[in-house]
């Protein structure tokens, strides 16, 4: 049997030994990896810009009163930003040679009103004494997304803050990171899972299409060229398909956009899920949520219970807001949302 070193035990139990142990424990904790979202917190700017949320909200409301497009455009901008390089406002960056993230073909349909909302809110924040260059564009985008949801009748919620702005934005970085209108459920599940988002998160976030809009080219093959030149996608409600044909004739102006929710397009509600039950999902990726039996259960729950949808949506967008957060030396607080400092 090995001898027990009682002197060592006594020294470790002494005040000096306890202090040494605590010191090494502190060093160990510093070396442990941690998730970046843990650095996000509520009221992050309490000491540096205490009224930041009311300042952003006022700027978003002003923009919203000018055009309703502000709401779906800002919300979509937030999703596209987080899904590519994380929630770091890299989607806002411009480049002289048109090589930035927003120049990718998957981002060209983003409405300018979303960008303008963030820029105007940033200007409003920086015009306040003490707040100038203290609040990141990434955080302003996250707050603006929350505010447009509330302005259209959806839930209001507390936003975790503390993101820094990324310095990198390239077309190539978009890759296959964004959901496409023709994606099937398995493709969507894989994409969302790569960001730590579950099937329930996927279905809930898809509900943002209740205030969305789309250009005709994004779904036209469902009503004109589904497996043949005349056949309509059989998963599409026939009356709805005829309506879409009237709104989007074959040679329609590519700039024309239509509402994704044909019932209450200006209200953030659970009508999107009721539409899916009737075969009125505009995209293949929308209707896929009802076709698959696993996601159909979630669709049916949200369709019958608006409170369940709102709670799930808040949980999902909060989780999304933690994706790829930049902290420390990974980012900066841009003086101009469109340019690296």
From TrEMBL:
Heme b binds at residue 209. Keywords: Calcium, Disulfide bond, Heme, Hydrogen peroxide, Iron, Metal-binding, Oxidoreductase, Peroxidase, Secreted. PROSITE patterns: PEROXIDASE_2 (PS00436), PEROXIDASE_4 (PS50873). GO terms for cellular component: extracellular region. Substrate binds at residue 179. Its cofactor is heme b; Ca(2+). One of its GO terms (molecular function) is heme binding. InterPro entries: Haem_peroxidase, Haem_peroxidase_sf, Peroxidase_pln, Peroxidases_AS, Secretory_peroxidase. It is an enzyme of class 1 (oxidoreductase). The active site is at 80 (proton acceptor). Belongs to the peroxidase family. Classical plant (class III) peroxidase subfamily. This is Peroxidase. It comes from Ziziphus jujuba. The lineage of its organism: Eukaryota, Viridiplantae, Streptophyta, Embryophyta, Tracheophyta.
